[in-house]
């Protein structure tokens, strides 16, 4: 951690009741600053203000449990806004800032906003609120032949049984003969090695020029295992999460069909919001960038200080790269969980500190609550 001087004021605070984001926007959101609240509020605004219909919004988050929570929170926000706008006079004086914003205008204007929300609630099951992999699966289905989608393939959440099978075969092939000599590793060690290599198949295996043992042997085994797992998956027509990402990425970058595939994906959505963006891997960002960056409103919400999924392919460098490419970079500046005294103490200890990278900075946040809770 570096305590060099960093300009923590250079990144403006985002106001959910301010101008709606357009283009590509990165919202840096420390713990407790209301990421899900912000996404739900923006979804309600985009719909109520006529920027997009609900089916033209795509909300992406990390994991199925988080997806279900986001779906519930968005629906709750739409319901509360729709009901609140039923009485414009009350809505204009309510403590709910978003409701007050949507009630600003003539009663006829408010009625139109409410009608849009009512329509959205009636069509809520059509909303695209999904994991990245779920989004990829939907897009591949829509692309059909252009996406090299195989409808008869079997989708599996894990290929660990195939991995274990491959490890047994490779281990016996290598050291199962009477004259094979002493194994360089145990079966358990080889299984752990192969699981790591296959688990993040986009990671580059190193060292490619290893000559000394056991590094050279470990490298050769990892390469062979990756290839064999893919061969057996192909033979059995199995697809997993990473296959969805790779297939969609390949469809978008195909020299002949790529532009048509990208256009077909982006024409479905006017607004795309991605939660927990700090855990996005390079392939996921490549898909989002090719499809939406520079063409669609793309809001990326995350906290690089909470990037903890490198072991699953998440890459904080992807977040930093997206931040540099975004037209707007703002922060969520109010903490809804902690007392002022705690936040003040944390600011005194860590404020302005760079955590491993000059662009990963502990930025100031203010307590939404006064006194002790």
Task: Note down, in words, how this protein is organized.
The chain is an alpha/beta fold and 373 residues long. The protein folds into two domains: 12-147 and 268-367, 3-Layer(aba) Sandwich (Rossmann fold); 158-239. It contains 14 helices and eleven strands. The strands form three sheets. Strands 1-9-2-8-7-3-4 form a seven-stranded parallel sheet, with helices on both faces. Strands 5-6 form a two-stranded parallel ribbon. A two-stranded parallel ribbon has the order 10-11. Mean pLDDT is 87; it is low at 1-9 and 310-314.
Average pLDDT metric: 87
Instruction: Give the DSSP E fraction (strand runs of 2 or more residues).
Output: 5-15%
Helical content stands at 40-55%
Low-pLDDT runs of 5+ residues are: 1-9, 310-314
CA gyration radius, whole angstroms: 24 Å
The CA-CA distance between the termini, in Å, is 31 Å
Strand order, sheet with most strands? 1-9-2-8-7-3-4
What is the H level of CATH, i.e. the homologous superfamily of the largest domain? P-loop containing nucleotide triphosphate hydrolases
What's the CATH architecture of the largest domain?
A: 3-Layer(aba) Sandwich
- Summed up, the helix count is 14
């Amino acid at each position: 951690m570096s305590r060099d001087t960093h300009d923590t004021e250079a990144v403006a605070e985002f106001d959910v009741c301010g101008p709606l984001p357009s283009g590509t926007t990165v919202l840096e959101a420390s713990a407790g600053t209301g990421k899900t609240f912000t996404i739900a509020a923006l979804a309600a605004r985009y719909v109520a203000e006529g920027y997009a219909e609900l089916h033209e919004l795509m909300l992406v988050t990390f994991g199925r449990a988080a997806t279900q929570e986001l779906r519930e929170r968005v629906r709750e926000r739409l319901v509360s806004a729709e009901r609140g706008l039923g009485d414009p006079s009350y809505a204009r004086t309510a403590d709910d800032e978003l409701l007050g914003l949507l009630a600003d205008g003539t009663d006829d204007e408010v009625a139109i906003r409410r009608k849009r929300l009512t329509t959205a609630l009636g069509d809520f099951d059509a909303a695209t609120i999904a994991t990245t992999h779920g989004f990829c699966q939907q897009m591949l289905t829509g692309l059909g032949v252009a996406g090299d989608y195989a409808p008869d393939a079997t989708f599996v959440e894990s290929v660990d049984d195939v991995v274990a099978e491959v490890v047994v075969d490779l281990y016996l092939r290598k050291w199962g003969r009477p004259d094979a000599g002493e194994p360089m590793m145990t079966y358990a060690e080889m299984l752990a090695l192969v699981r790591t290599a296959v688990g993040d198949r986009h990671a580059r295996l190193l060292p490619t020029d290893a000559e000394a043992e056991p590094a050279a042997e470990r490298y050769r085994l990892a390469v062979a295992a990756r290839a064999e797992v893919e061969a057996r998956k192909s033979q059995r027509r199995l697809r997993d999460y990473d296959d969805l990402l790779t297939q969609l990425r390949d469809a978008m970058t195909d020299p002949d069909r790529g532009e048509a595939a990208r256009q077909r994906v982006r024409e479905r959505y006017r607004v795309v919001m991605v939660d927990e963006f700090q855990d996005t891997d390079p392939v996921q960002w490549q898909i989002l960038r090719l499809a939406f960056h520079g063409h669609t409103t793309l809001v990326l919400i995350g906290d690089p200080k909470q990037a903890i999924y490198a072991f699953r392919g998440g890459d904080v460098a992807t977040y930093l790269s997206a931040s540099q490419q975004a037209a707007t970079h703002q922060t969520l500046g109010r903490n809804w969980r902690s007392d002022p005294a705690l936040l003040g103490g944390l600011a005194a200890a860590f404020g302005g500190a760079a955590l491993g990278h000059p662009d990963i900075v502990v930025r100031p946040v203010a307590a939404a609550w006064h006194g002790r809770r």
